[in-house]
Amino acid sequence: MKNNKERAYYVFIFVVNFSVLLLFSEWTTLREIFLLFFVSILIHALAIYHAKKRQKLRALHRAKNKEKTQKRF
Fold first, then answer.
1. CA 62, CA 73: separation in Å to the nearest integer?
2. Torsion from C-alpha of 59, 56, 47, 6, nearest 10 degrees
3. How far apart (Å, rounded) are the C-alpha atoms in residues 31 and 15?
4. Whole-prediction pTM value?
């Protein structure tokens, strides 16, 4: 469930970025639209990478805490 929420959040950010691009498309050239579109894709990909990295760190931290509690008892 949590993965779906994070994925939905990043898709929402991507859609908002793309909508802003379309909103200002009257004043920008086609080259600028494509450049901003690819930048928004890059931001989206980095956000997904960051979420996966954070998830791995949480799992590692959880495993360390589990070992500590098992050593106490």
1. 17
2. -30
3. 20
4. 0.50
